[in-house]
Task: inverse folding
């Protein structure tokens, strides 16, 4: 069985989230990308505490696709330092994981 991951990235505008999501799914780097938001983020940036509304992309894929996913996100992402975090999936419905494998593999 392949190792599965969920990659999370956050952008300022919904249009950016939609563009990144479509690019990842079209390239078969992700089986599914969910766009969640807006969410409120509070963070340190250049010596200040900032608060912003953002949109999250939750990217469902396989571990072996991570490097390509990161490259694709960085190519499309408007931030100087984008959030790109991969979280391992330790369990999942067998039918869902089979579907995910097939979609990422292009089957």
Result:
């Amino acid at each position: 069985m392949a190792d599965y991951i969920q990659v999370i990235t956050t952008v300022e505008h919904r249009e950016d989230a939609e563009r990144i999501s479509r690019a990842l799914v079209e390239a078969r780097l992700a089986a599914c990308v969910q766009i969640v938001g807006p969410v409120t983020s509070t963070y340190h940036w250049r010596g200040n505490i900032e608060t912003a509304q953002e949109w999250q992309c939750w990217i469902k894929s396989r571990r072996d696709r991570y490097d390509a996913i990161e490259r694709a996100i960085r190519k499309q992402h408007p931030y100087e330092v984008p959030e790109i975090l991969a979280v391992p999936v330790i369990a999942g419905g067998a039918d869902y994981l089979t579907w995910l494998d097939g979609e990422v593999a292009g089957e």
Observations:
- The chain has one domain: 4-105.
- The first helix runs from residue 14 to 26.
- Residues 4-105 form a domain with the Alpha-Beta Plaits fold (CATH 3.30.70.120).
- The first strand starts at residue 4 and ends at 11.
